[in-house]
Design goal:
With 342 residues, this protein is of the alpha/beta class. The chain has 2 domains: 159 residues, Luciferase, Domain 3 (Luciferase, domain 3, Roll), CATH 2.30.38; 160 residues, Rossmann fold, CATH 3.40.50. It contains 11 helices and 14 strands. It has a 7-stranded mixed sheet, with helices on both faces. Strands 1, 11, 12, 13 and 14 form a 5-stranded mixed sheet that branches. It has a two-stranded antiparallel ribbon with strand order 2-3. The chain is globular and about 60 Å long.
């Protein structure tokens, strides 16, 4: 018998609350690897789409002995399949934004409390208690549609601040400007979080110098403006808003966790999330370092869908454990699998 196979065969087929809580208590690489293998075995057994994909690659608990052997499900499956573990009905369904005629991704979330715990715990790790801030959100394109995981997250963070001035803004840039002036005058720690095109629009209309505000972009021109590389975007925003660095949030509809950058476009993940860069010519070769490749994500909070996702993003892993997002594949090419087979 393959070493370790007996252990995997007798894993419980349900993820009880204690194991779910363990996700957010990871303290070292060994604990991460152990839990990743547990969740892989569970999802292999209980997630029909993921199991079919793994079987197509001839990968399973019997020959996956370390977490770097775990197959990553192409993110496109969230557009064409119901990616869910244990085939239960979701409490929430998050849907990605898309242009007219394009199929969108759908992520069924069985437990909204798990998502809330994931993003609140990550925020606290990177920024501390939300109650220490006033949070202003400039997310017009997300507010104009249903099912945005980003709006859900930011709304909960705003509620957590308990600050009377925290809230969403759409296109009322004058009101946002006046509110920022008041917060600056009172030396209130503030986070201005916004989608890239909206932050640019605001910064061009109301250039100023912010001393007590952290500016955080969540990515995405959404077809509203010319696409810019992150360094160019940050340079424009930092000059217009008078801040030294621009922070960034990296997340997506198909995940329950986020990575954050506190400057220079270098992201770091919470302990239950890791990035692996794959070879663009051979997507089954990973991880690679110091070279541009496809971004694979392990998000252990994704117990109820799939914790191992190959995205369409291009990135690079750095020696200090951080990573950079450098763009996207123009036309994603899923090698080594056949969607029709599933």
């Amino acid at each position: 018998m393959v070493p370790g196979l007996l252990f995997w065969l007798f894993l419980p087929l349900t993820m009880d609350s204690s194991l779910r809580n363990t996700i957010f208590n990871i303290t070292c690489e060994k604990e991460f690897e152990h839990l990743a293998l547990e969740i892989f075995s569970y999802q292999y057994q209980k997630n029909k789409v993921y199991r079919a994909f793994c079987e197509h690659l001839k990968r399973g608990p019997q020959n996956v002995g370390k977490f770097t052997d775990i197959p990553f499900l192409p993110i496109e499956f969230f557009k064409s399949h119901r990616v869910v573990t244990d085939n239960k009905d979701p409490e929430l369904v998050f849907e990605s934004s898309g242009t007219t005629g394009n199929e969108t991704s759908k992520h069924g979330v069985l437990d909204s409390g798990l998502y809330t715990k994931s993003f609140l715990t990550a925020f606290q790790l990177f920024y501390g208690n939300p109650q220490d801030y006033c949070i202003l959100a400039l997310l017009p394109s997300y507010l104009e549609r249903q099912g945005s995981s980003l709006v859900f997250m930011v709304e909960k963070l705003i509620q957590q601040t308990q600050h009377p001035e925290s809230g969403f803004h759409r296109y009322d840039h004058e009101a946002l400007h006046q509110k920022l002036r008041q917060l600056e005058a009172s030396k209130t720690k503030t986070i201005l979080m916004g989608v890239s095109f909206a932050l640019l629009d605001f910064a061009e209309s109301y250039p100023q110098r912010l001393k007590y505000c952290t500016v955080m972009e969540t990515g995405g021109m959404k077809g509203r403006r010319k696409e810019l590389i992150r360094s160019e975007l940050h340079l424009i925003l930092s000059h217009a808003l008078g801040v030294d660095v621009i922070h960034s949030e990296y997340g997506m509809t198909e995940l329950l966790s986020q990575a954050y950058s506190k400057g220079n476009g270098r992201f770091k993940t919470p302990p239950w999330m890791q990035i692996m860069i794959r070879n663009t010519e051979d997507p089954l070769t990973y991880p690679i370092f110091k070279k541009t490749g496809g971004v694979n994500i392990i998000d252990l909070a994704n117990i109820d869908s799939c914790a191992f996702i190959a995205t369409q993003d291009l990135g690079k892993a750095n020696n200090d454990g951080s990573f950079e997002i450098l763009g996207r594949f123009d036309h994603s090419d899923i090698r080594g699998c056949n969607l029709m087979a599933l």
